[in-house]
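Trying the structure run again after the queue cleared.
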Amino acid sequence: MELPLVVGLREDERMATKNEIIGILEEIGVILEIKGENPFKTRAYINAARTLEGLEEDLQTLVEEERLDKVKGIGKAIAEKISRLVTEGELPYYTDLKASIPHGLLNLLDIPGMGPKKIKAVYKNLNIHSIEELKLACEKGKLQTLDGFGKKTEEKILKGIENREAYMARHLWWDAHEIAEPLVTALRELPEVEKAEIAGSLRRKKETVGDLDFLASSLSPAPIMEWFTSRPEVQEVTAKGETKASVRLTGGLQADLRVVPPEQYAFALHHFTGSKEHNVALRSRSLQRGYSLSEWGLKAEKTEEIPKDILTEKALFDFLKLPFIPPELREGREELERLEGKKTPELISNTDLKGVFHNHTKASDGKSSLKEMAHAAAQIGWEYLGISDHSKASFQANGLNEKELINQIQEIKDYNASADREIHLFAGIECDILSDGSLDLSDEVLAECDYVIAAVHARSGQKGPDETSRLIAAMENPLVTMIAHPTGRLLLQREPYELDHRKIIDAAAANGVVIEINSHPRRLDMDWRWWRYAREKGVRASINPDAHHTDHFAYTLAGVNIARKGWLQPEEVINTMNLKAVREFLRKRKSDG
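Done. Tokens:
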């Protein structure tokens, strides 16, 4: 199971945030399982947590309008508990439940191999309720005396304790991708391999991943297993069987390889790509048509018809009367229902981009000059490049004041008029939004720019509605073209600002403001989960690398991933326009303002 986020409510506010409530629901589920409660009751809390994660409608609104129990996956009893957390910030049931087990017992979940059942066993039989006590028991050989453990299990748990930080760390998609691509390329070159692919959350382009999953098709798995487990980047072989192996790579990333015969490959690839929720939905659809679906294939249950050979995922979807569903969309968010009777959506691709707008030079905190950035962008084949250095409030980034911005605008005009111009440059600015929602530079100077990106770089000290109002106030300035990285999150480093996404999106729609998908691998903001609502409101995106060096232009790939997960098509992203069209778009935006 996915490890729960163990959290406590904030002391400075009584109302719990959605993320805190998700953590509490997960923790309740785990505690109930440790205590041996009814598994259906346990799963109900975990399912409710997953439902909240994907919830697009504002949670507080659902509570206020007493509609939370109408949300699929949240029953009446759990809805009442969530409502109390939202309105009062406390839940006696959770407090009492947590007090019923020793402090520190839940920390054992950090150890690979220690699920709720094993935690229950060591707690009941050996009175272990901390990682330190678990380690001591392993060193003394006490765990192997318990049913279901054994010496090898004890050794693995001890090893897991020693490496738990590296083992449990999540990784940015970008970092995992750079490790996985050379591996799968080499895997495909093996003579025994017919097909090979990356699976799991990496293939679905999730913003962070926990481990790597590889799948290969072959009738000779033994040499493939040997090749995989003896790679130079393998630090530890944690499991090795005839058709499956698990290894720990340098840096702590776990990688699993499965080898299946050709006739099972399409089914296994779909299954191990996931998500779990998507797989459940497709299995349900299969059962309705008289078949049971698994990673092994289709089996006739209520029909005499024998499934034909299915050797590709497309053939599997065809058999189930669905268009091919790209891996990015397989998140269990009604993709089957939304694509019923339709064609595969033409999602945006990296080659659709004609230029980017959010880029920095040495004038502020970039590492490359204006001409170096222009040359690199031209080499990619883009038609235009926007320059948007920081404004003066970002003093730590050497932000530009009014005079410096005017000088840069003139430099860009001179470049565009020069004989050695390689690409068209647009003059922009990443202008800080101040605590009251006003902009860092005067309207008079901002009007000289081709476009203005408004961004928050310092929290105002306010939360929730006030941070939302701050962004909305900026969007109401007619000179603002787009909002950058709206939540300010840094994946695996910093939590996002507390915003009302619906209000932000509504304001963008009302004011004709573009919302950025910041492609920096640690940002990927605005989150893909909100683009469905943004599309419904007619809000357009701009995929930008937030480049501070010419090498950073490559980040657009990560941003395109997020756009694809948000179902975005090329026409919904402004920087798929050619130069003529985007110049007209920016001109019209300024004149309309």
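The chain has five domains: 18-99, 105-163, 173-260, 265-339, 350-592. Worth checking whether this holds up in the mutant runs.
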